[in-house]
Amino acid sequence: MVAFLFWNIRKRPVQRAIANLSKTLGVDVLLLAECEINPAILLSELNCEKAQYHYAPGVSERIQFYSRYDASHVSPSYDEASERITIRHLKPPGLTDILLAACHLPSKAANWDEDSLALMCPGWASAIRDKEKDVGHSRTILVGDFNMNPFESGVIGATAFHAVMSRAIAQRKTRRIQSEDYPFFYNPMWSLFGDATPGPPGTYYWNGSTSTEYFWHILDQVLIRPELLDRFKNDDLRIIESDGTKSLLSSSGLPTESDHLPIFFKLRL
Amino acid sequence: MEDFWPEDIADSSGEAPVALLRYQARMLGERTRNLIEAQVKLVSKSRPHDRFDARLAFIDFPRDFLYAFYIVAPTLDNYSYLLFHAFYGPELYPAGFKVHTSIIQGLKQKLDQYRIEWMYTSARPSPSAPVMEKFAPESGQDPEPDDWILVAKEKKQFESILQAILQAPKTKRVVHGLLDQLPDLGPAVHEL
User: Fold this and answer.
1) Is the dihedral of CA B32, A61, A200, A187 positive or negative?
2) What is the pTM (predicted TM-score) of this model?
3) Domains of chain A, with CATH numbers?
4) Which residues pair with A147 in a beta bridge?
5) HSE-up of residue A186 (Cα within 13 Å, Cβ side)
6) Domain-by-domain residue ranges, chain B?
7) Residue A30: burial class (beta carbons within 10 Å; 0-12, 13-18, 19+)
């Protein structure tokens, strides 16, 4: 099993919490967005008891990669010019290799509305498909801060990420629209919305003043290609609310360390 | 049909020179919390022909497997420093090292016995013995090469040469120089 953790830490100095999380959850691959912690400082914290983690530098600085596998097993494959999407070829020793795509898409707080984001997503989705053609397989996951909910057009749209809520539908592999085939992703994050699920109701909380407020959003997501679905169990996916020693939520249940909560999942590779 | 392969054909010692290199590479990471790492990379065979190759090609030294050993600082923009090359053939030994003379400054007397120039002599030469005639430079040129090629005839010699290179003062200065450029991480990391 390979365990992944993604967290947008909103530029906070939360290296201790990251180290605690990595140890508590047995993280193998750690991805961080909005991380301004010096990699040497974070690496030293992660490895304070034992030198387990390696820093895997790449071109993009938007997402930082740390891994229990040395950097040669997390090799850069593609970095999009605006660094919104970065793709690594993850080859854990003795295990199945995958394409690990990570994203930190533009924020609506920076005046990107849903339509503007949705218009950009086809380009990013196409970059992933191109990389899949290069490596000759579609064992791909896309994880990160999408700054969109699972139901927004940039995530669900066929020309965009085409990420659907049902395994059975994703396992059809593609859908033909206007004579063109568009591959599916499976989006397990749909299953984590609301109070009736284990853990917090979402990954990001925003109490706006408009008439339509969701309050809890799931902006941090993992999308999985159907080729990997037999290696993924929904029970292994969680929104994390504690670093193992300290809660990441306030007494009223809202994120504290960062305005995003981490997501954790596993793949049997 | 009969299987002609010997009984022990599939046995292996698991101690190829590259395994020794990878172990030492891992040890550096463990000592420095992976802030400074060593990487062992297989070098492509498609290299331009140069004097390094010529010396080995001249005496037909096996070089089927050629590895580069780097000191790497991943958090310093992935800076890498080539420490040496190691190479050998399918029988593993003899195995060779190619290392710049600046790295083994102060160790030349200890390592002189392993130089490729003496490989086919029947007795150890004196320190002042001239290089073998085949490698004699043209007149007027400095006879001292930039790189030494050191030959290990078996595993113990390989380990001795490797140990000498890793413990060389220059190797330590390179690692310490990289560590000193990192932010203040406390005393433990610098106790190398």
Assistant:
1) negative
2) 0.89
3) 2-267 (3.60.10.10)
4) none
5) 24
6) 17-132+141-190
7) buried
Which B residues, 26 through 85, put their C-beta within 8 Å of a C-beta on chain A? Answer: 29-35, 37, 39, 74-78
Give the pLDDT of chain A (269 residues) as one tens digit per residue. 999 999 999 999 999 999 999 999 999 999 999 999 999 999 999 999 999 999 999 888 889 999 999 999 999 998 888 889 999 999 999 999 999 999 999 988 777 788 888 889 999 999 999 999 999 999 999 999 999 999 999 999 999 999 999 999 999 999 999 999 999 999 999 999 998 988 999 999 999 888 989 999 999 999 999 999 999 999 999 999 999 999 999 999 999 999 999 999 999 99
Q: How far is A160 from chain B (nearest CA, A)?
A: 33
Q: What angle do CA A224, A226, A228 make, to 5 degrees?
A: 70
Strand pairing class (A204-205; A216-217): antiparallel
Cα gap A117→A102, rounded to integer Å: 16
Pairing of strands A98-104, A140-145: parallel
Question: Which chain B residues are Cβ-neighbours of A44 within 8 angstroms?
Answer: 33, 35, 185-186, 189
B96, β-bridge pairs: B87, B151
